[in-house]
Amino acid sequence: MVTACLVCSRELQVEGVCTKNDREERQRRDNAERQRKALMGQVPDSWLRLPLTDAHARELGQVLFFRGTYCLRGHLAPYRINGGCLACSGQKHSAHESLMP
Question: Over pLDDT 90: what percentage of the chain?
């Protein structure tokens, strides 16, 4: 049984994907907010003022964001929107190094 033409079904599919992407971005921002709250006082305040995700940074026209997560090499530092931890690229020290005993 056909319930929509090809054009309408394509629009519905795109609408569904956009809704899913929006939901996932909200979830990423909520997770980043929780992780950052746990790091208050352990990382520079300037990091906590950065956008929560890469999409959030793009919306604000910024190039850096801080999720409050460790990169694959174990650094705790802001990220660039085009990928990469600032500590890995040598641009900033990792907060993780100062947290180690």
Answer: 60
